[in-house]
Amino acid sequence: MSLEHLKNKLVKQFLCATQISAVHFDEMTDTDVSLILDLLTHDTLQNFPLKTPYVAKFLKKMINQMEKKENELCDEIYYKYIELIQKDPNEGPFYKHYAFNSDETDEIKSILTIQESTSIVSHGTTGLCTWQAGIAMACWCLRNKHLLDNRVIMELGCGTGLSGLSACINCKPREYWFTDCHSAVLDVLKNNIQVNQNLHTFNCKFKVVQLSWDNIGDVKLNYETKPDLVLAADVVFDQNMFDPLCDALKWLMMNGTTEIYLFCTQRNPETFKTFQEKLKSCNLNFKRDILPDNYSILLQQDCPIYVIHIK
Ligand SMILES: C[S@@+](CC[C@H](N)C(=O)[O-])C[C@H]1O[C@@H](n2cnc3c(N)ncnc32)[C@H](O)[C@@H]1O
Prior knowledge:
By secondary structure, the chain is an alpha/beta fold. The chain has 2 domains: 3-92, no CATH class; 118-310, 3-Layer(aba) Sandwich (Rossmann fold), CATH 3.40.50. Helix content is 40%, strand content 18%. The chain is built from 12 helices and 9 strands. Strands 5-4-3-6-7-9-8 form a 7-stranded mixed β-sheet, sandwiched between helices. It has a two-stranded antiparallel ribbon with strand order 1-2. Strand 1 (94-101) and strand 2 (108-116) form a beta hairpin. The radius of gyration is 20 Å and the shape is elongated. The structure holds S-adenosylmethionine. Residues 125-127, 130-131, 133-134, 157-159, 180-182, 185, 212-214, 233-235, 241, 244 line the site of S-adenosylmethionine.
């Protein structure tokens, strides 16, 4: 995909299938329209397609907007729209493409391609789609490369792998361990790693490990070395998980050098408060920061996203 395509905000949002209601079609330009039309026949979207109903909805909005402005539209966009609405909407797999900017400039650093489920919970797990905190963590890695430099990193509940891929491709850790408890999640993750290995250079060794916090014994058994850094995104949402998660964090911290960053979407303030109390009761000292609004145009910050740093 040429980087020329990605200068425009609307195009970046289209590629990562930003919720239609969050896209400002009223700001759409003629260039956006021609870039998007161009992208629809691009190899990347042919090989790794976005969800068909999403593309159809997006085109419909574009058509409506252009008609409203009484701008002339080429026939191609109407043909493409008709072709899409006639397609089987469930014919997957579907992908999203996240274009990350470099931290210092507006330049695109990398475009990560991620296979995602179209439903929030599928196969009994939340790990088959990428969550806002996961996107935030992926951006944060790019902006805090120095914190990842040459470190052995373990990610808990890594899901589809967007954040970890950002760390391996955009930063320079020594090792990266992708971990999650769910087999279906790990299968999709392995596929996402493979897709991105064909598109990018990985800057570190990595491994994929099936690991559940519910069984801290596995962690003890399999890791004679502890990681320097533990990362996790959107793992604080179910109070039933707090005990095993905190036990795992406590064990990981016991060497006195491991640091932890948790990226948390605060959907329910009470749940989030309970988690912080749980951390305190486990003597896990932490600092809490909130990510600024508009942290990245790849994000929809409907709920606040916090970063908890345990040290
Ligand atoms: C909401 S998803 C977040 C996924 C990813 N980090 C992201 O932000 O897109 C929570 C993830 O935690 C994993 N998970 C849930 N309970 C777990 C447990 N007890 N042990 C390990 N992983 C768990 C799920 O399989 C899922 O991938």
